[in-house]
Hints:
Order of helices and strands: HHHHHHHHHHHHH
Distance between the termini: 13 Å
Number of strands: 0
Number of helices: 13
Shape: globular
Structural class: mainly alpha
Number of domains: 2
Radius of gyration: 20 Å
Amino acid sequence: xxxxxxxxxxxxxxxxxxxxxxxxxxxxxxxxxxxxxxxxxxxxxxxxxxxxxxxxxxxxxxxxxxxxxxxxxxxxxxxxxxxxxxxxxxxxxxxxxxxxxxxxxxxxxxxxxxxxxxxxxxxxxxxxxxxxxxxxxxxxxxxxxxxxxxxxxxxxxxxxxxxxxxxxxxxxxxxxxxxxxxxxxxxxxxxxxxxxxxxxxxxxxxxxxxxxxxxxxxxxxxxxxxxxxxxxxxxxxxxxxxxxxxxxxxxxxxxxxxxxxxxxxxxxxxxxxxxxxxx
Length: 279
């Protein structure tokens, strides 16, 4: 299977938490909490189905990102005695630059993060997955032929890495799901870019199976249900189901005209929903 292009999804706006801790109205403990939570929420606010951040037409960071980064630098310069706060803030700066596709700046900020001073389990997990996040942010929109010929080995490595990262995040279900959804989209892009039918089928099935293996029976029931009227709009389970539907619908649309590409997934509900789609 081979695609002319890979579909993209719009991203949500960045979380603007800096205003709180630069306003001088929070205690040190509150600042630390706000910064760590903003790192996590900023990551989760992006959609792993396409890319981790939007980039301006000229490839430069936008004004608000540059201003926020400057504020972070100024704040760190004035508060050199707190390594825990510095690590959390510098890591937020890393994610801010990554969201802007300013990879050199993101890498530079990341190198300044003292990993031993990160206290939040979420920050530690995101820090460990930075190579995966950075790579996908850079190559998510690569042309299929370029992606397959130049990034196949890297994609396979990141599929393995994200599965490993997610495996230790049972206590952080939002983040675990984010990593597994990203892994599914990487597998989708890689499988659809391949001309090798067996590799394509195996990669696509694995991409879906590893993610949906974490779905509860209730979530699988919701996947095949047409009734979302009672669903909680910000509930993790609802979000998982909606995004899985997007993934499977995208997959079905991209395999149209390839009748030999028979896909069989490990979950009956996934097979049922996929079979109901036009492809």
